[in-house]
Amino acid sequence: MAEPKEIKLFGAALSGYATMVHHALRLKGVSYDYVNVDLKNKSEEFLRMNPVHKKVPVLVVDGKPIAESLVILQYVDDTWKQPPFMPQDVYLKSKVRFWADFIYQKMAPQTYAIRLSEGEAQKKAVEEFLGYFKTLEDGINKDIYVQGPFVQGENPGILDIIIGTLGAGLKYFEQAFPDLKLLDKELVPLSCSIIDAYAELDIVKDTTEMLGQYLHA
């Protein structure tokens, strides 16, 4: 397959899903153009690129759009081979996909439930989220984990990108809602360690700085 020539990412500065794609491209050393989408006034160009879901992120490679962040992460890993985001072993690869899907299907929606509730309903939502978090922690330890700092070892992979970006969002939650405790190092020590290591990556810091320009524009 010929090397892609034109890569453009449509995203939004506050979108964790788009942030994951920024990180993936930068970890692979891929140069790309970024278009910050006004989510309240989406352009015709953007809507043509994602007419079904009409959401960010969308990665456009040589004019061909790819939508949905988890699909994009897998596309990036398939297109740019180094460094790999997935283990070579087929069984381990299936486990990575399983737990990535678990985060998307169970944990991510629960963060919205926490944000949109209050009182006893919010307390229940937090308890459910932490239960999912513990399930993830135990599953990664059992199915995949090698000695870190990341899930697969020295280099971050797809699960690290997802967990690391989720962790940044959880830290924001804890700042906005001081009574909430979502990052419990006693409950999920491995996940918290991954989140801390991921936050120290240069590509993460550089992405945060770049996106900050749009937040203050």
From TrEMBL:
A single GO BP: glutathione metabolic process
- Per UniProt, residues of the GST N-terminal domain are 5-84
Catalysed reaction, written as an equation: RX + glutathione = an S-substituted glutathione + a halide anion + H(+)
- Hydrolase: is it a keyword of this entry? no
InterPro entries recorded: Glutathione-S-Trfase_C_sf (IPR036282), Glutathione_S-Trfase (IPR040079), Glutathione_S-Trfase_N (IPR004045), GST_C_Tau (IPR045074), Omega/Tau-like (IPR045073), Thioredoxin-like_sf (IPR036249)
What GO molecular function annotations does the UniProt record carry, in alphabetical order?
glutathione transferase activity
- Main localisation, per the record? cytoplasm
Q: Does the keyword Repeat apply?
A: no
Q: Where in the cell is it found?
A: Cytoplasm, Cytosol
Summarizing the function annotation, the protein's role is:
Is involved in the conjugation of reduced glutathione to a wide number of exogenous and endogenous hydrophobic electrophiles.
Q: Supply the name of the protein.
A: Glutathione S-transferase
